[in-house]
Amino acid sequence: MFEKSLCAAVLAFFFSAAHAQISSFEIASVKVSQLAARGGEGSTRDAIQVTPTTLSMHNVTLRSSIQWAYDVKEFQVVAPDWLTADRYDITAKSSESVPIEQLRLLLRTLLIERFKLSTHRERKEVSVYALRTTSRRPELHVSTSSESPSMRPNGGALEFHNMSMTELAERLPKRPFGIGRPVIDETALTGPFDFTMKLAGNAAELKSDLERRETDQDASFFVAPLRELGLRLQPEKAPVDMLVVDHAERKPVEN
Question: Nearest Cα to 240, choosing from 127, 128, 124, 129?
């Protein structure tokens, strides 16, 4: 019994020691994005790449960096507007392979060090849309693609490829949809899927309708197309965990 206890204690010591060694990135660089500074096409496009030892965030806003670090959705971050104005390049390397959850924790530490970030969590009841299925069978096709989820226009429709319902729910509050409130996936459908959302007769009508809808903030524009897919948006009130940014510096500490 003593030998077993001693063995367990030794293993626990080495396990905790190993994790204590990687409380921060071994190498990290945070710079203002030159792509964003130049402007033009692609200046508002970001990219995040992850390996077991590295994190590369290109042309990201501080808000999206916080969102990734704390593993929350966009609507859960309560922050000043300037956090979406400036863009940065963040590259960091861990001294050893770690799971993605640990990379998120390491990024939190980096944001605290470089941007003097401070946050707290609150639980608030907010207006949301629950994405649910209708009584009809959903017109969704299980995807066999290994590519990243994508959405692209095709004539008067939007084509979705390799996309889960959770990812669709996250896209609906954003352009070109701009539903106007958070959307929570309650479909219980496991994906990803390929599907087409018919919105207009042709490409010109689609562009015009989306621009008008964005001006009017009319979510009803998507009711019929979603129902054609066997989906619906149900307005609700729901308690949501929010991440509130109390403080952040606009200019990061130099590398």
Answer: 124
